[in-house]
Give the backbone structure.
Amino acid sequence: MKIKSVVLASLMSAMVVTGAVAAELKVGYVNTQRIFRDAPAAQKAAKKLEGEFSKRDQELQRMAKQLQALQENLEKNSVTMAESERRTKEKEFGEVSREFQRRQREFREDLNLRQNEENAAVIEKANKAIKQIAENEKYDLILQDVVWVSPRLDITERVIKALSEGK
């Protein structure tokens, strides 16, 4: 009986201590998606990527139109074409189609790689700002990417402001 009392007393005191610590715990939340959407560093990175890849994107669009024109020409005129001319046009269509797919795949791979690099730089800056806010305002815990959080814990706007000031 004495052991049960000691265990019960220990649990009760642990709960009281935990409750006291929880009452003093300062928690914040940062919405990473908003950082990527609204932070000046993220917007600057998006414009940079757009400038880097716009020429290749336009070239792909031009090739897509060329492919569509070749296909329409084949569909429209294949019945009236000579067999050798039809085969030549089909071969040309196949070659342009393969080249288009190859360039499109390379474009996506290169774009994804650069987006990841730029996102990593934005996250690095955001993490520095978050750490600075945590230290200055004495936060015990700052969370990212949660299922739900009370708006009163959201410090995303302060992080975006800190990133704006640190341009």
